[in-house]
Amino acid sequence: SAADKGGWSSFMAKEISEEPEALEATLLGRVHDGLVVLDEIEGGFPDDVLRGVDRIVLLGAGTAAYSGLLGKYAIEKWAGVPVEVELAHEFRYRDPVLSEHTLVASISQSGETMDTLMAVKYARERGARTLSICNTQGATIARESDAVLYTRAGPEVAVASTKAFTAQVVALYLFGLHLGRVRGALSDADSRGLVAELQALPAKLQEVLAQGGEVREMARQMSDTRSVLFLGRHVGYPVALEGALKLKELAYIHAEGFAAGELKHGPIALIEPGQRVFVVVPSPRDSNSLHPKVVSNIQEIRARGAYVLAVAEAGDVAVLPFADEVLRIPLAGPMFEPLLAVAPLQQFAMELAAAKGLDVDQPRNLAKSVTVE
Ligand code: G6P
According to its UniProt record, which residues of this chain constitute the active site (predicted)? Predict the structure, then answer.
């Protein structure tokens, strides 16, 4: 049953292992003839309404807000609609500009987070259209919204979110692909290619998770570390933020995620000999050519004594001379790399917490669902 650990050492270990399934389940029935079809949002968002949307605001708290950041990259690229990501608790206290052409999409595993619920209600009162991306059937936020796109990660018990995050990113990507096609921003051929990438992810993620033993070894060696930094660029940036959040939540280690391009504008001052830094490295095949820029960031921090842990694509040899440890992810399109790169960081936080003898499923001071403001 969902309420037992099924032989795993923790619910979190079990839930990370279920990420490929969560991904697959969230795609199930939503792809027809190689294209995305989202029947369930038709009611609240018929195609003509989607064509009239001129701005999207993604709302969430904690991990859900970071999945929103990834949604922003995908939706803007595929559908050509401007997207903002807002922390739900900041949203309604700053007079956000909303109209019937604004689509406010909330992201919540529980569908009960009070900050997110209040933001959704506020958006509705101000005339915006509301979409809920939610993992819990019939949750309050889902009921308060014009339409729901359910993630199908299954029940998540561990306080720190893992498989729900993966499923949220997939749901946002599905929505971006749907919107892109409805609005004529994405050709059927391009759409099919992207859908095929999504469908290939569960098997690739399985490969990533199989390196769990390596990650455990790394974590054990770092069990007395006091501070870890995470760098990423483009879609690697939200991955860095999520990796840092997981480490704070689970292992009570000071951790910060930074955009790699921001390094020279401040964070590089933090680098001293021995500082542990995870770097999420974009594919060397990527056409934006961000790869050399991130490799040069690695050289800069290495020259100042950082201990570099790279998450890099299989076959990327450029990182080898400068990284102390390398975790590999299989080849995927640029937008899909985060779904592979985040898993080792989740595993790392879990293993480090376990190495410190902490309760992985119930970190101190945190609640699974925060139903007060
Ligand atoms: C709490 C949990 C986090 C979660 C956040 C949002 O802070 O500890 O893991 O990301 O709430 O929860 P939601 O259910 O709205 O996704």
Answer: 368
Q: For residue 83, give the amino acid letter.
A: V
pLDDT tens digits, one per residue of 127-143: 999 999 999 999 999 99
Residue 163, pLDDT score: 98
Residue 103, pLDDT above cutoff 90: yes
**Residue 16 Cα to ligand 1 middle (Å):** 16
DSSP-derived secondary structure for 13-77: HHHHHTHHHHHHHHHTTSEETTEE--GGGTTTS-HHHHHH--EEEEEESTHHHHHHHHHHHHHHH
pLDDT per residue as tens digits for the range 12-50? 999 999 999 999 999 999 999 999 999 999 999 999 999
Tokens standing for residue 178:
């749907």
Strand partners, 35: 32
Ligand 1 pocket: which residues have CB below 6 Å?
Answer: 61-64, 108-110, 113, 116, 159-161, 366, 368-370
Q: Which residues contact 84 (CB under 8 A, 6 or more apart)?
A: 55, 56, 57, 58, 72
Q: Pick the atom of ligand 1 nearest to 61's CA.
A: 6
Judge whether residue 3 has pLDDT over 80.
no
Q: How many whole angstroms separate alpha carbon 15 and alpha carbon 276? A: 27
Residue 97 and residue 123: Cα distance in Å, rounded? 10
Mutating to test ligand 1, I would choose from 113, 133, 361 the residue with most ligand atoms within 8 A of its C-beta, which is 113
* pTM more than 0.95: yes
Residue 365: CB partners within 8 Å, gap ≥ 6? none
> Over the stretch 311-331, which tens digit does the pLDDT of each residue have?
999 999 999 999 999 999 999
Q: Provide ipTM, 2 decimals.
A: 0.94
Token pair 């095929």 is at which residue? 196
- Cα–ligand 1 centroid distance for 289 (angstroms): 34
- Rg (alpha carbons) of the chain, rounded to whole number: 20
